[in-house]
Specification:
By secondary structure, the protein is mainly alpha-helical. The protein is built from six helices and three strands.
Amino acid sequence: MDNDTLTQINDLAEKVRSHFSIDYNLEGIKIIENEINDNRAHYEQKSDKEKQHISYKIGSFIGVCMVKNYNGTWIENKHGFCIKIRSYTVSPISKVYKFISAQGLFDSISSFYEIAGVFDEIVAASQLNTTKKASTIPESHVNKKSWWQFWK
């Protein structure tokens, strides 16, 4: 990614940071998330172009948080501007666009940020658990009680 693009991204992030008087961290992202949730109808009725502009600004802020706190790197790929953190890539701009759209009502940009920081650990843990098999016990070993006698 060229330096001019990185400068523009950092400038957008700094405008968001100073507008909300926040730091580049999870608490700052939660403040933005609460602002959007408190004014969801306002954001949802914006035009597609306005949503894209908002997504670039807030997504740039989240991306800079990832660069500063998770040692991420901005890259450009077929999905647009993304953050590479260790062995995976996330797209904060796309995530913000989804979040401010109607289908983002039950979504979370703060959870997205938190998971991005530990994604490698989640993947490693899930790979360790793939060899474990569920075990069953015979029905004869189950202590059967009537449902109304659950305390016995």
